[in-house]
Amino acid sequence: MYIDEIKKEMKIPEKVLIFDTTLRDGEQTPGVAITPDEKIRIAKRLDRLGVDVIEVGFPAASQGERKAAQQIKSLGLNTQVCGLARVLQEDLDAALDSDVDYIHTFIGTSPLHRKYKLKMDQDEILQKSVQAVEYIKDHGIIAEFSAEDATRTELEFLQKIYSAVEEAGADIINVPDTVGVMLPVSMHKLITDIKKAVKIPISVHCHDDFGLAVANSLSAVEAGAQQVHATINGLGERAGNTSLEEVVMALMINYGIKTNINTELLVGTSELVSRITGVKMPPNKAIVGDNAFAHEAGIHVHGVLQKAETYEPLKPEMVGHTRRIIMGKHTGARAIRSKLDDYGIEMDEDQFCSLYDQVKKLGDKGKMITDADLQALAETVIGRPKEEKVRLEGFTVITGDNVLPTATVKLNIDGQIKTAAKTGVGPVDAAINAIQSLVGETADIELKEYHIEAITGGTNALAEVFVILADNEGNSATGRSTVEDVVMASVEAVLDAINKILIGR
User: Fold this and answer.
1) Where are the domains of the chain?
2) Out of 250-259, 284-293, 393-402, which region has the weakest mean confidence (pLDDT)?
3) CATH H-level, domain 10-277: superfamily
């Protein structure tokens, strides 16, 4: 395949480390605040997930940040626990006091940061960077150095400062695309050029302002980066960061690069972080979204049922997901038959055609049919009598404030058209009264039981009505109907039971 030919030309590493910054940069998502206890829960899950480094926060920011870092460090996790610090003495001391074993220190290097934020020249920035790294190493701590806004920094200065911190003892350098302005091709060239100046491992931290964070991170790896900063669900400042689940699976499936991530825990971890932060994932979110392995279109469903790889680049089980076949207007007959087989529901051809038509009609109305919906629809069709002595020809109902609920029903009874209008305490009661008045000459019918249930949540849920009717001769029958309208479902269920009684006489 084309991708395999391209990979032969790449000098990609065998393994990439994952530096998770959900608890630091992810918490900087607007509107998100994570308590120390919640940080501990997430950190434990990230440890199980297998990330190599957890950036637990910015210890200098608050006492709560320092406490959370100390508590997470005390858990004895397998992963390295990292604290963020500016190249300032107070920041570095706060991180050291948090007992972390890894400090990620940074300073802005671009002309914009030098002029407007720091008001420093290149020499001052370089000096402070070297001093910070030396201070960290004097305390026996792993040191990672970031040139903030590296992707808008002059290459010559970037190479110079990275080379200087390497000489000062930095264990790894990080290249942040702080405002997400890079393109994959430019990221590849930048990492290639930086590698000419340093020998220590290179990490990359990409933001998603143009939706390119994952692509830029992968391009950096292609150029030789050995570590990627990422967050669960791509959380972070503005448009967020590199999505951990996306970059890990792309590395694994598309590049054949190993990570230490237990990918089967990705969906569960995503859901935990979503619940704690309150940031819901869109259904079409890659890898972990509800629709990531959902199929509706008939052609796709047919292919997936025959061979999953036809429309799935990876197995859902690999990331802790499940495949879903969605019923809707694009659904083909094979998909419905497959679902019925899963439920153990048997139908003859006429019954199946009736069910298929109902699914299509509901789909045309914009309704997505869930598994529960389909089972209820199928049970309704199967329970329907083969012939009808009483058939609904028309039905209207009037109700509202200061209006006595009134139903008008037109029935075909043994070939004769009859119409009646009756009132009731509500529209359902009025409709049943009208039906009883019309069939009274044929059978004296009494409603014994009436149950209604919404199959799924939402105002557009299908209503399933179940009734038991009896006549004066002791015959009884159940009736069932599943449609969107509660009143119509009630009418159809009652007529279903009436036909069973009349046919069984």
Assistant:
1) 10-277, 294-382, 386-504
2) 284-293
3) Aldolase class I (3.20.20.70)
